[in-house]
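Work Package 3 committed the consortium to producing structural models of liganded targets before the mid-term review. Because experimental data for this complex are still outstanding, the team generated a predictive model from sequence and the ligand definition alone, so that downstream docking and mutagenesis planning could proceed in parallel. The input record is reproduced below exactly as it was submitted to the modelling pipeline, together with the SMILES string for zinc ion.
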Amino acid sequence: MSTTICAATCRDGTPCHGRARPGDDMCFVHSETTRERRAAGQAAGGRGRSMIARTARYLPPALTPLLGSLVEAMEQVHTGAITPAQGTAMASLASACVRVYEMAVVEQRLESLVRGRVIDARAVERSMDDDTETSGDTPLD
Ligand SMILES: [Zn+2]
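The resulting structure, written out as tokens with the ligand in place, is given here.
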């Protein structure tokens, strides 16, 4: 399979290095045949950005940049700026980041639970010591 380079010139005046689409001399970004799909992708991008803003309110701050990168990657896959395989690799890495984050949260909660139990157990021991001191050593009459 031969790869033809896009015949278009970019906005900055440099030649496009994109891969021409089959049966076309231009890439996805420059081809007239993909104009509607690009417009739909840009609209989806706008919706994606407002979705990021809404969703980010419920995300832990550590994961907010990840969401932005993922939505950007979705747009890039849609417009052909990155390959679907690159998008899949990003999604896979993002998924791994979320799993590590979830593990850290579970560990943190477990640790605070265990710490809470240790504190509770010490409080119970102290109160038991207090009981034995008062009831055991104090004569009743
Ligand atoms: Zn091009």
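Reviewers should note the following from the model. Residues 48-135 form one domain. These observations will guide the Year 2 experiments.
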